[in-house]
Amino acid sequence: MIPRAVKPLLEERLKVYPAVALVGPRQCGKTTLAQAMGGAYFDLEQDADRLRLDLEWEDRLAGKGLIVLDEAQSWPEVFARLRGAIDQHRKRMGKFLLLGSVSPSLMIKVSESLAGRLSLVELTPLILTELNTKASRNRRWLFGGYPDGGVLAPKRYPHWQLDYVSLLSQRDLPTWGLPAKPQTTDRLLRMLAALNGQIWNASQVGQSLGLSYHTINSYMDYLVGAFLIRRLQPYRANIKKRLVKSPKVYWRDSGLLHALLNVPDIETLLNQPWVGASWEGYVIETILSTLSAQGLSFQAHYFRTNDRHEIDLVLDYGKELWAVEIKLTSAPGPDDMARLNRSAGMIKATRRFLISQTSQSSGDGRRVSCNLQGFLDHLDAL
């Protein structure tokens, strides 16, 4: 089993909360991680496990072991039981570990029944810091981070990704409440692949699909809630220039993106006109997934003015504001840092990072040129 970066955070939260919800996309490793924590495991998508939980409920509550409830959103009746059990023993910590493939925004019963009673921890597909070999790191951008999707077994890409997206369109998303027909969902996903890294325009997408922008935005809520798409919100700075106010959209897993865009290998990827947007999204997702696994408090944005001053990623830690520019080049130049400094000065960023594929890091700690691994080392310093 590959050690997961989020495990220490999960163990910490189980010590101080009665219940913890480990959420993340299907097939990212939630079940494997949860079973490594020990305790009694129940898959609530299976009728046999629902019956077993029902029959063993009182004995399990009386015992000291952890109770792991996988795909908890598939059996809403369990949330009322959980609330009663937690309220009866409010000082007992770490009794329940819930696993879910949709975000709490779609798990209505979580917000209704367990508000204030559990902590949320997100598990993402494998991130760069969890892969030790150089070969795996080189594959991570092309194949994405799903353990079964190629990063560990290259021959499975891209067929695994295409099957994964098809299953989500046909079964999971309708089950979770998405009202669109699978054919419409499939078209929307392929359009989003073409729009990766761009400013979101729901009206434009809606016209292509024959749907209103209200409907398209509601569909997007489900794709975000299923951990497929990230909406990066704009940073609202108090400056005189006009700001772009719509979010940018990124595929959270680069392997799913590349499979939908029919990219078979790294050579083909590097020759695509949109390769810069792919690299940008991959770097952003790696950074945000790493921060999330560390349990750090932050807000993520992008910044753009109407006259094209731009910062790819703005990280707001409260006391510090980091401006991050991402370039797909092995030889960044002074002009790249100068452009970053001009934009970062508008929002008074305390640190500025230029991330590229350079082999050498340079800078004084406040202005830094580095590769992705070098930037992750700066995150460790937090």
In short:
The longest helix has 20 residues, at 275-294.
Structure explained in plain terms:
The protein has two domains: 7-122, P-loop containing nucleotide triphosphate hydrolases (Rossmann fold, 3-Layer(aba) Sandwich), CATH 3.40.50; 128-381, no CATH class. Helices cover 45% and strands 18% of the residues. It contains 16 helices and 14 strands. It has helices at 7-16, 30-36, 47-62, 77-88, 108-113, 134-143, 147-151, 159-175, 182-194, 202-209, 213-225, 254-260, 266-270, 275-294, 334-346, 372-381; strands at residues 19-23, 40-43, 67-70, 96-100, 118-122, 198-199, 229-234, 248-251, 299-304, 310-316, 321-326, 351-356, 362-363, 367-371. The strands form two sheets. A nine-stranded mixed β-sheet has the order 6-8-7-9-10-11-12-14-13, with helices on both faces. The longest helix has 20 residues, at 275-294. The mean pLDDT is 93.
Key phrases:
382 residues, Rossmann fold, 2 domains, nine-stranded mixed sheet, 16 helices
Mean pLDDT, rounded to whole units? 93
Note the run of SSEs as H and E.
HEHEHEHEHEHHHHEHHEEHHHEEEHEEEH
Instruction: Count all strands and give the number.
Output: 14
Question: Quaternary state, please?
Answer: single chain
| Major sheet summary line | 9 strands, mixed
